[in-house]
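Practice set, problem 2.
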Amino acid sequence: MHVDSYYGEQEVMEVGFYINNYDYQYMDYVGNGWWYRNIVSTYYDCDRYYHFDFVAADYDGFEGYYVYEW
């Protein structure tokens, strides 16, 4: 996932996501504004879709949100 803030890519402090509003996962910064995470969760429901709420925070405390359903 590519993340940028108002002041640039290097100003993003933290990125993570919730899986189905339940399990929060931190993402690792891999450079040039890109964040990465293998999904490790204790919550699985094979009969339903997955709902991801991505959250990014910059050093000024501002947050951005992105929702992805799969």
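Problem 2, part (b): a different protein.
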Amino acid sequence: MLIMSYKKAATLILMAAALLTQSCKEDNLLPPVNTNAYFTFINAAPFLGNDTKGTTVRALVETNGHTVADELKFYYHSIYPQPNTYLPFTEGDSKITFKDSTRTTLVTGIVTTQAKNYYSAVLTGSEGDYSAVIVHDNYEPVPDKALVRIMHFSPDAGEISLYRDTEKQEVLGSLDYKQVTPYTPLAPGSNFSFILRRNDGTSKRVGRFFVPAILAGSAYTILLKGFVDPPDGDIAAKSSQIVFYRN
């Protein structure tokens, strides 16, 4: 039989009580389940002119008057943290401040978020003329349809139309710069292209994306960014392009 001395037993009881107290305090600091709003961050603004600022963007998030995260650092050719991953933040009155690599503020976006809701915070524009666009990402799945939306962040493309190129090109809708369409139900399918064209009478193509497949019950985003005609001539890095991803 293992006999424990009174002194040792008392010490263990005190340690257990301390751990229980600490655990209760930590639990009290945790937010209730499912009270977070969720953000992903997108840099759709190619930098022009002075490249010493680089293509790094920082986002500082403040909610209800309090900074809720360290500055997030991301790049022009990426969506942070991932196209279909969102970071949790406290719900409420939120302010997203976009900064360049020198931590100079570019623009600030303001939104009131709600728990269990998903948002994209998008930086768009060009040197000296930036906008912060906050997009609500929630959707209701349609069992026998795929859902597709367009986000238009190409500064010089003007009004554009979306075409689905299967056996023939079928127009699906139009929108202007800094606009986002609702999710549109489409028949699922594979091996076709989404094409974006200028709606100015020229039908100039500003982006094309070959789609391996879109699936019923899923939602997708067609994000257009970059310049049709880059003002500084940097065609390689700043030409218009489509980023296609599943939400």
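Answer key, part (b): The chain has two domains: 33-138, 139-247. The chain has two helices and 18 strands.
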